[in-house]
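Posting for a labmate who doesn't have an account.
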Amino acid sequence: MKSQRSQVQALVTRQDVEREFDTLFSAVWALRRNNETGILPGPVIPLYGSQTAAMETFCRLLWGVFSRLSCPDSPHTEVEPLFRLIADGTNPSSPNYWGTPGDFDQRCVEMAVFGAGLALVGDQFRTHLSSDEFNRLVDWLRHIRTVKLPLNNWSFFPIMVETGLCLSGEEWQPEIITHHFALLDGYYLGDGWYSDGQDRPRDYYNAMALHYYGLVYAQLMVDHDPQRCRILRERATIFARDFIHMFSDDGSAIPFGRSLTYRFAQSAFWSAVVFAELDVFPSDVVKGLILRNLNWWREHAPVDSRGIMNIGYAYDNPIVAEDYNAPGSSYWACKTFLILTQGEQSEFWRSEAKPLPLRESIRMFRHAGQLVHHDISHQHHYLLNSGQFPAKNYNNSESKYAKFAYSSLLGFNLERSRYGLEMNACDSMLLFSEQDGYYRGRRLNLESEITERYIRCRWSPLSGIDVSSWLVPITGGHLRLHIIDSDRHIDTVEGGFPVPVLTPQVASPGEKNNFIVNREENLFSLIKDISPRFAREAEIVISPPGSNIIYPCSSGVVTLQQKLMPGRHIFVCLVQAGRGEPAELNITLSIDPQYRYFTLQDEGTSYTLPLTLTSER
C-alpha cells in the first residue's frame, strides 16, 4: 500500500537530506502569489484566519532554511526573496503586515523560528535587511513580552526570542527567560519527563517541543546561563534513554496523542541531540535513527501531486487534524532539518548509520503510564497505555490518548461516530452500550498504577458501571483482565489491533472468527477470550476507509462481544498481532476466588499479580 515515492532512493548523505528539504521547500514556494507574506497550500482555515495560516506555512519552512544557512557546506541559495517577505510581514505600514500578536496568538508560536534564526544566522538578517527593516523585525518580536500565553510548551517561544535577541547583539531581558523557565520547571515530572502544562498530556510534545527547544537553548546559551544549560542537558539525556524505545527497527515510531500531522517531527528531538552534541548514544546510532525515520515517511509519502505535505498521518486524512491545524501546519516537521547545521566533516555526517542498539523487550515510561513492548517474535512494536486525559477536548481525544494499545506497525483507528461499532474505533478498546447502538469507552481514569510487570487502572464509562483493567505484556503478546461492576443490563465489545482489509477474502463484517490474517501485507491480529466463567463471542468488525491512520483502506478489528446482566463480571483475553500468522500462546491463568490476586504462567515463568490498587492493600 505504499505510494510510488517508496521507489525513490533512500536518504543517506547530508546532500540527500538537503535535497529533500529543498524539494519540500520549492513545492511550497511555487504557490506564493504576488507579494503576499505567506503561502496557503489548502482551503481549510482554523479560527486564527487565513493570513496567519499562510504566515505559519512560511515560518515553519524557515526551520530548514536557517539550519541550512548556518552551515558553510550548504551550497549557495538565493535567500533575498525570503528576507523581503520577512521585511514586509513585520512592517506595520505594509498591507501584507502579519499583524501585532495578541493574547494566546498563533503568531507567537511562529516567532520561535526567528529567535533561532537570529541566533544561528544573525549576520544574514543584517545583510539582507536594512537597518530599519531589522529594527521593525525586532520590535515585532518583542510584542511576545507583553501578551498572555497558554501555560504549556508555549513558554519556550519567548525564551527562543530572547535567545535570538541576546546572541544577535540586541537588547534582551534575561528575567523573561527566568520567568518562563520557572513555569516550565513546574511541569517537570522527573526522570526526563514533562507534562505539557500542569496535569496535561505526556506525549510527543516532550520530544519535539519541550526537549527540542531546551537542547537548542542549552547549546546556544551555555556562556550566558551555564547552570540552566547543564540541567536541560541532564534532563534530555535521561529522556533520550526512554524515547529511543518509541522507534522501531524500520524507522517508524509509535503514533500516540495529538498533532500527528507533524509527522517526522517525531525525530526532531534526535536532531536537537546532534545539534547540542549530547553524549547519550553514539553518533552513528542517532544518525541511523533519524535517517530511517525520514525514509519511513518518504515511503509513506505525506505529499500530494504538487509535492505539498497534506494533513493526515501516513496519507491525506483530514480527520487526523486538530482544530488548530492549518493547511501548512505539517511543516513543523522541518524542525528535524536542524541536522543540516552540521557540516560534512562533522562526526555525525562522517559516521556510518547504525541500527538501533539492543533494547530490553519491556520498557516502562512511568510518568506517561506506558509500557513499550518489543515483540520480536512477531516483529511487533507497540505500547500498552494506562490512559491519559488531555483536559482540552482535542479532536478524537479518546482515540489518541485512551486506547489500551498503540502500534507502530498497525497504527490505530479514529472514531467516526458514537453510533454503530463499525464507526466507533473499537480497536484496543473496551466499549459499553446501553443496548441502543451508542458506544462509550474509557475517557479518563479514576485511579491508575504502573509497574514494570503490568498496568492497572479503574475507570467508569457510564454512571453505575465501574471497570478495573489490567494490561500485562506476555511472551508474544499481552493479556487484558477486566473486573466489571454494573448496575444494569449492558452490551460490551472489546477489540484487538486493527488490520488493513482490502477485499472480503481477508475479512468480512460479522465473521465469527477471533483472528484476521492479511497475507498480502503479511499482517495479522488475534484476540482470544479466556474468561473463567463464559467465553465471549468473537466477531469481526469492518471500519470504513480512512479510519486507520496508517492504512487508507477499510480496517478490520476482531472483537469479543457479550451482553451482561447487573452484577460483577470478569473478562480475560489474550491479544496478539504483528507480522506473519497467529501463534499458540502458552499461558495459564488462575484467579483467586476473592479477587485478591491472579497467577499467570508465561512460557514456564510464574508470577502473581494483585487485583487491588496499592491504596486498597
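Reply:
Got it, the C-alpha cells are right above this. The chain has 13 helices and 20 strands.
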